[in-house]
Design goal:
12 strands; 5 helices; Rossmann fold; 3-stranded mixed sheet; about 200 residues; alpha/beta
Amino acid sequence: MAMRVGVIDYGGGNLQNVLNVLHFLGTEGQLVASPSDLDSIDRLIFPGVGSFGDCVEDLDQKSLRAPILEWLQEDRPFFGICLGYQVLFESSVESPGKRGLGFFEGTVERFDSGHGLKIPHMGWNEVNPIHPELPVWEGAPSPLHLYFVHSFYPKPKDDALVQSTTDYGDSFASSAGAGNVFACQFHPERSQESGLRLIQNFLS
């Protein structure tokens, strides 16, 4: 039976990029826009660009919050990208009063402009895996350079969740995960061969 990969349709852009990468890797993704769409898939990718508040509002309007949380709690294969990483946390300073999925304890913070660095953090930067032996990093180059576009970054309460760090003024958690759940602030779908390797590792 062919692998069935769902891509969460949260109402934002960037979905086509991920679908194109899946197609390039020999897998056809299908959009997930309602709870019933989750019934027919084996792996779930949550890409995201846009604002934290708009994203969680869209999930609630589509009644996707509870089924996505159930998927995560069952430790089913999940790959979150950028905003799809941030919404796993409880809240974001970008959207006060908006409740994230809360699967991971912690908040999403804004970069400190006091470092004199440009915000958003945009372009290629080094990603330092904490546990390079994990399957998601298999075959990835070292050092690993991946593409970022963001002004906000998650701050996990539990350091054990951090899967990689990146320096931009300060060190931040550029990815986090537990079990079969992995999510990252960088954009693997825009990161050429290195990013393709991470997505292929998730699929396999």
